[in-house]
Amino acid sequence: MKWINHIAIAGATTALIAPPLVPLAILGATAPDWMEWIFKAVGQKVKHRTVTHYVTTWIAGILFFYAVWDFQHIGLAFFFGGLTHVIADSFTIAGVPFSPFSDRRFHLFGGRLRTGATGEYIVAGLIVITCFTAAIMIKPRSGENGWYPFFYDWQAKYEEGMIDGKEWKEKRFNFL
Predict the structure, then answer these.
(1) Does the chain have fewer CB atoms within 10 Å around its N or its C terminus?
(2) pLDDT more than 90, % of the chain
(3) Distance, CA of 106 to CA of 84 (rounded, Å)
(4) CA 102, CA 161: separation in Å to the nearest integer?
(5) Which helix (H) or strand (E) holds 10?
(6) C-beta of residue 156 within 8 angstroms of C-beta of residue 142
């Protein structure tokens, strides 16, 4: 898949859970590819979609940072982004290796997508639309308590006295 689709998938899924962690997830979503460049820069030849694309490595990173230690979920967001990358690459014909001990490639949905083709943009778009729809559906109603990172209810904030009339007029049409 192209980087733009990896970024869109990781960004949308992370924004639904923890919006401040989106930049780290995006960095992780591109990591399997730029890590190959680092290997090459230090003199180790690495083929594309091999060592940096093991599904089990990214899952192990998530489990480590979730269960053992993580400061502000930084590592968790990074490894989640990396996992979204390898899962998205598993939709393609080439697939990804599941673990270092497996000689077969891992495919989801039969690995029907071609990198750069229309299908990958459709899949990424559907994931983004699904996350956007879920974000709208979990939004607290006006006047209800609850934190919601998107679509601020500026009218309710004005009525509660949290913002003044000038700020309400400036922000009432800002939906994001």
Answers:
(1) C
(2) 60
(3) 14
(4) 60
(5) helix 3-17
(6) yes
Lowest pLDDT segment from 27-41, 85-99, 100-114, 147-161: 147-161
CB 58 within 8 A of CB 69: no
In this structure, the answer to whether residues 8 and 25 fall within a common structural domain is yes
Per residue in 31-86, pLDDT tens?
Answer: 999 999 999 999 999 999 999 999 999 999 999 999 988 888 999 999 999 999 99
The answer to whether residues 159 and 114 belong to one domain is no
Domain co-membership, 125 together with 174: no
- Total domains in the fold of the chain: 2
**Do 103 and 146 share a domain, yes or no?**
no
Tokens 């994931």 sit at which residue? 127
User: What is the distance between the alpha carbons of residues 78 and 58, in angstroms, rounded to a whole number?
Assistant: 9
- Structural domain span for residue 44: 3-138
Residue with tokens 């990958």: 120
